[in-house]
């Protein structure tokens, strides 16, 4: 049975401040927990629906497992629909090492947690395991980011930086920007490695970063829509990258 202290801890992890102070975050839902159980991350505890009390996956874990009523999961979860449960996980010590012989996705000012989680999942699908984020991007361990990534956050190395300063260090790496006015992506020949840069959902890539871009590339429009969601744009870029 959960104590009031444990419930207070769980509720604190709904906020960025609580996650930062405790160095803990939430992984919610069956898919995320299943991925987590097969990872190297250290699990603080698991809170799961009591109907799964006989599930061997939880019997053999090395962390505390609490079986609770359905209503309590709904009460403590950040998700609207979560009948399964959630895990409290220790934040790993980040050890990002830039690999110049691979592609790195660069995110400038991505504020929507759902978009960031989707991009993480897309990168995982297309075998991109490095993401560099501007300091004003939404938090990687936001529960909505973790949920939208569907477990892919476990396989993506990430780092928050001051983008202009960081990008300026890598003069030999090709910087490709997803912009409205650029080369047709269907005709563009991608290099063997480099940076692919995506901008803010409303304002795109900031001008100071645009000035560092070597190649501007666009997804041609065949209809009347004004723009594409940044997650969709990322998927199209990475699909064309892998095709080439």
Please tell me about this protein's structure.
- This protein has ten helices and ten strands.
- With 244 residues, it is α/β, with parallel strands linked by helices.
- The strands form two sheets. It has a six-stranded parallel beta sheet with strand order 7-6-5-9-8-10.
- The N and C termini lie far apart (55 Å).
Features of the shown structure:
244 residues; alpha/beta
Quick description:
This protein is of the alpha/beta class and 244 residues long. It is built from 10 helices and 10 strands.
| Largest sheet data | 6 strands, parallel
Total E-strand runs: 10
End-to-end span in angstroms? 55 Å
Q: Give the helix proportion (percent range).
A: 25-40%
Stretches with pLDDT under 50, minimum 5 residues: none
- Tally of alpha and pi helices: 10
Q: Strand-and-helix sequence, N→C? A: HHEHEHEHEEHEHEHEEHEH
Rg, Cα atoms, Å: 20 Å
User: Strand content of the residues, in percent?
Assistant: 15-25%
Derived structural class? alpha/beta
Adjacency order of strands in the biggest sheet:
7-6-5-9-8-10
Categorize the overall geometry. Answer: elongated
User: Which whole number gives the mean pLDDT?
Assistant: 95
- The oligomerization state is single chain
């Amino acid at each position: 049975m959960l104590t009031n202290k444990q419930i207070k801890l769980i509720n604190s992890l709904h906020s960025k401040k609580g996650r930062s102070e405790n160095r803990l975050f939430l992984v919610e839902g069956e898919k995320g927990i299943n991925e987590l159980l097969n990872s190297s991350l250290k699990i603080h505890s698991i809170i799961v629906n009591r109907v799964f009390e006989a599930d061997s996956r939880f019997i053999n874990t090395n962390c505390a497992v609490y079986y609770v009523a359905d209503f309590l999961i709904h009460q403590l979860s950040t998700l609207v629909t979560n009948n399964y449960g959630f895990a409290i996980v220790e934040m790993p010590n980040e050890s990002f090492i830039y690999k110049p012989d691979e592609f790195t996705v660069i995110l400038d000012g991505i504020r929507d947690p759902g978009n960031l989680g989707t991009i993480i999942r897309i990168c995982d699908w297309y075998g991109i395991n490095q993401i560099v984020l501007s300091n004003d991007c939404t938090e990687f361990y936001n529960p909505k980011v973790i949920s939208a990534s569907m477990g892919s956050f476990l396989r993506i190395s990430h780092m928050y930086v001051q983008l202009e300063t960081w990008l300026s260090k890598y003069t030999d790496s090709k910087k490709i920007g997803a912009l409205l006015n650029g080369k047709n992506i269907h005709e563009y020949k991608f290099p063997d490695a480099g940076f692919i840069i995506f901008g803010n959902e409303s304002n795109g890539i900031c001008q100071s970063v645009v000035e560092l871009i070597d190649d501007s590339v666009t997804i041609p429009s065949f209809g009347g829509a004004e723009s594409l969601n940044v997650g969709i744009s990322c998927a199209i870029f990475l699909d064309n990258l892998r095709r080439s």
